[in-house]
Write a structure and sequence with these properties.
The complex is a heterodimer of chains A (about 140) and B (about 100). In chain A, helix 1 packs antiparallel against helix 2 and helix 2 (about 40-60) packs antiparallel against helix 3. Chain A has about 140 residues and is of the alpha+beta class. The longest helix of chain A is centred in the middle third of the chain and has 20 residues, at about 40-60. Chain A has a 6-stranded antiparallel sheet with strand order 1-2-3-4-6-5, with helices on one face. In chain A, about 35% of the residues are buried. Helices cover about 30% and strands about 30% of the residues of chain A. A 5-stranded mixed sheet of chain B has the order 1-2-4-6-7. Chain B has a two-stranded parallel sheet with strand order 3-5. In chain B, about 35% of the residues lie in helices and about 25% in strands. Chain B starts with a strand and ends with a strand. Chain B is globular and about 30 Å long. The chains are: A alpha+beta (about 140), B alpha/beta (about 100). The interface of A and B includes residues 22, 46, 107 and 114 of A.
Amino acid sequence: MTTSPRALRTSVLHLILECDFTRVRPAVQEVRSFLKAHGCKEEIRSDFELAVVEGCNNAIKHSCSEQRQQPVELDVTIRRHEIEVRIIDHGPGFAWPNDIQLPEPEHETGRGLYLIRRLMDSACYLRGKKENILVLRRRHCSGHG
Amino acid sequence: MDMKMEIRDGALCISSIQQLSEANSKAFREWVQHALQNGDRNLEVDLSQTTFIDSSGLGALVALHKIVSQRQGKLLLLNPQPAVQQIIELTRLDQFFQIARTER
C-alpha cells in the first residue's frame, strides 16, 4: 500500500489486492480507514465500503483462472467535495446494463450493481481490451482540504 | 465455520455471524443447508453480531428462505444491526424476510 499527496486538496490511496475474495474486505477496510483519516462521515464510509466490496467481487468473478494471476487495483482519490474510487481489473469484463433494476425477492443474485448504483452518486464502467475500470463517485462535505 | 449453531424450541439457530460476504456466504449456505437435513423446519439467523453483509450474503439468506419455505418452515432474522438492516431495506428484502427485533 502506498499513500501519497498528489496535489493540494487531493489525497490518494493506491492498493493492490490479489484476485481472491478473501482479500477484498481487508483491502476495503483500508479504504474505510483512509476515508476516516480524511474526515469522511460514517455514512459515506459505510456506503463506499459496500460499493467497493461489490465492485471488487465483480472484478474477481469475471476473471478466468489465468487472469486471476493479475491483481485488482484500487485507486481512492479524495478531493475537496468529491470522493472517487477506481477499481481496475484485467479480466474480460462484463456488459454494464443500461437500466439496473432490483431483481425479484426470490432471486439469489443480481443485487450487487443495484447496491452500487443506489449508494453512489455515479457509477461508470469502462470496459477495455487490457483492463476494465469501474469509477465510483460521491460528493461529500468533510473538513478535508 | 466460525459461527454458532444450536437447536432451540425446535428451530435451528445460527449466531455469532461476523459477516456474510462473498468470502464466506457459499460455505455458510452449505453449512446451514447440511444441518437442516436433520429435519428442523424452522431456521433462526441471529444477525446481532453481523457488522457487514453484501449482495452474496443476502443471496445466501434468500436461498435458505426458499429451502425452509419448501418444507413449510420459516426463516426468522433476529436483531440485525442498523447497517445490515439498511442494506436489507435498500434491497426491499425487509418485505420478504421475517425480521424480529426482540432479544430472546
